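Worked example 4.2. Below are the chains of a multi-component assembly; read each line carefully before continuing.
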Amino acid sequence: MNYVLKSIPSRTVKPRNSGFTMAMDKGLSLREVEDFIEVSGDYVDIVKLGWATSFVTKKLREKIDIYRAADIPVYFGGTLFEAFVIRNQFDDYVRLLDEYQLSFAEVSDGSITLDHGQKCRYIETLAKQVTVLSEVGSKDAAKIIPPYKWIEQMRKELDAGAWKVIGEAREGGTVGLFRDSGEVRQGLVEEILTQIPEEQIIWEAPQKEQQVWFIKLLGSNVNLGNIAPNEIIPLETLRLGLRGDTFDFFLNL
Amino acid sequence: MNYVLKSIPSRTVKPRNSGFTMAMDKGLSLREVEDFIEVSGDYVDIVKLGWATSFVTKKLREKIDIYRAADIPVYFGGTLFEAFVIRNQFDDYVRLLDEYQLSFAEVSDGSITLDHGQKCRYIETLAKQVTVLSEVGSKDAAKIIPPYKWIEQMRKELDAGAWKVIGEAREGGTVGLFRDSGEVRQGLVEEILTQIPEEQIIWEAPQKEQQVWFIKLLGSNVNLGNIAPNEIIPLETLRLGLRGDTFDFFLNL
Amino acid sequence: MNYVLKSIPSRTVKPRNSGFTMAMDKGLSLREVEDFIEVSGDYVDIVKLGWATSFVTKKLREKIDIYRAADIPVYFGGTLFEAFVIRNQFDDYVRLLDEYQLSFAEVSDGSITLDHGQKCRYIETLAKQVTVLSEVGSKDAAKIIPPYKWIEQMRKELDAGAWKVIGEAREGGTVGLFRDSGEVRQGLVEEILTQIPEEQIIWEAPQKEQQVWFIKLLGSNVNLGNIAPNEIIPLETLRLGLRGDTFDFFLNL
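Applying the procedure described above to all three chains together yields the following structure tokens:
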């Protein structure tokens, strides 16, 4: 930190298990990745190459290498996993992870219908090779999954070997954990937290109001994901009570 | 592409006549232009320097040269044409195109009232010097042009020598083809398509939902415009059925 | 300017007292700062490092130096002043300004409750060391300050030594001068202007519609603040009547 301020909430440091921030890269250039790391490298724990953007990304290997050199692991968005699975190319996906020497992978069913037992078997298989993040929640706003189902799926996916489970929100923050308006499905989140330890969950929360809501519920060191690269610094100030939205909250503790 | 996925919709390649993407640069630095080309050069067919931003753009000539070296033609937004016309400086505009050795120009009447015969004469004149894109639709949300008028104007502008016609939407996507909410004027688009061949139209569609709508109506190789530089990669994944929004659509074909 | 257009509204040049543009940097890298200056240096009069982002900004000293070398002064957002004051660290804040050789500082009470006499004493104290910008308006949407209060506070803060007063709007443009929808509190602005000279006010107006509204009310050379770096060029075209939104307005003058 650049100067001393008293009574700043304590933050975990890398490598973090909680207070984790996952950023979404949906098409940065190599130079932009360097800039991103210069500014936000200490505050980003992992980077997702959004959905299947890696298919059309130029200099993909160089990009992954730049992140890796800064100790920031990279993984492919869950939609890519689904794109391989729906085409009966799961074996190709396994080889792809190997070819790019990735140490993380996401298993999700946001765009496809996947028997949950089968989803867990994918998690089990991949967990032998990489650290698995598994995602619960549909990208389809019409598919409302009831809370008990979220909990059951999260538990089974953790049991199958997922390192953490991700609560779905899309890039825009309007499905899964959130209503169409972006408002948090508060009852859902609270019910999940009665059953699943919070350190095992990453909440996708691209909008500032969503981040504020989770920080107020779970504190500075909540795990958050789908953060845009230029919102990492703003998020870090929210976590530290140094922006209007959470300024009062930490003072009152 | 970085790896093999089966059953990916086929995409046209540059130089494209359909499946064309027009990006809007509203003030990138030279280095940002280089980065943009690194990431998205294969997927961008032409760049518009938004409205009259070229008036205040630093190093304009160098910027145009960088794009040109990457085989991406640049043109000035239609508002600049209108700014010259309303000041009785059309001859200066012609000289300006020449001075910057531009090969494309836009003719529009989004902010001025222009007799349609006169608009067509401007198209005719400019078509002798450059490839003309002509734009139909007002930037004024209150000026609703009925479908038959859109069709009549588009046809006459193509007859006058326009290479393609552009359906207006602004940078934000809220006028012309769209309602205030950003929703597509579906009946308008469908009626236009009964009369004007789709390869001759570029649909301005800055919002993701608008892009999805046009891709679902006209397929991967619809011509789209006013795409922000950092949305070119996301758009390309939509065209390929590799993002949630169009994932199902192409699988069901 | 890159070419000659007749009847362009006249714009003040740097160093400006009116027609002033304050940009908000919420986490640019050093290279992004260089790019920003290349593109917009002539149009930006001062840069705010948003709220307390300077706490977590890497290479803070180098960043300030790059701006300074381009004759663009930098100051810390008012929330940082408040973070020091609430912790009884005002003396540390004074030393911090000195340590970074800043020539501007903001005094605000958007997130804390501060006796107005005390606020004015802070202004008085800091005005001996730096040029003070003081801000009126709460970041709390529920705290509606009536117009006569805005005026009284603005007048007292100017009397205490503030160079200009800032009308609050947050980064998003939704409190203080604006309703939740982003709409301008028109009556408030008009009443303020009956009492406070417009050159002494900087209006925070991050949204395009807000900028348009102020330009139409007060002309090209209105002082505007909280402009995102990539919106400086678009704003400059609005000031010059070279974008659809203000195109007619200046022609009709």
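Take a moment to check your reading of the output against the notes. The two ends of chain B are 22 Å apart (CA to CA). Chain B touches chain A at residues 1-7, 31, 34-36, 38-43, 208, 230, 232-234, 236-237, 240, 242-244, 247-248, 251 (CB under 8 Å).
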